[in-house]
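Z., the sequence and structure:
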Amino acid sequence: MPLTVNQRHLENGPVHLKGQLSLEELDIDPRDEVIQLSEPLDYELTVEGMEGGLLVQGRLSLVIDCECVRCLKLFKDKVLLEDWTEHVPLEGEDAVPVVNDLVDLTPLVREDILLEFPQHPLCDPGCGGLPGLNKGKAADSSTDQTEPSSSSAWA
């Protein structure tokens, strides 16, 4: 069941929504080889009626399976929107569809979660990449390791 709120319930005051949204309902296709989804989205939201729209505030959390772009190690990361706020227009040009007094919040949640995905997931900010690779230096067997290092940067 998508993440929806009934407008009639808002007549008595704010509505609190808490639960999980399955991957099928969230319908996110990351289109990325290094990010995959395997766990549902957790949400805890408060929805208030406003003149001409809704105000949605709360917390969104999604665990993602990542592959480090430097060392190819698999790891889990969390997309966390701690103070998520969204104005949902019900009137005008940008109005969201209302079907049987239900407003579907799923597309708004999906969009903001996708925007928070890491562009280049790293298992650790200091990740050195694949082990055993020379980092940008050509292997030179003629270099003697016993030579003292020069004090000049240009030597």
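The chain has a mean pLDDT of 86. Helices lie at 23-26, 106-115.

Let me know what you think.
H.
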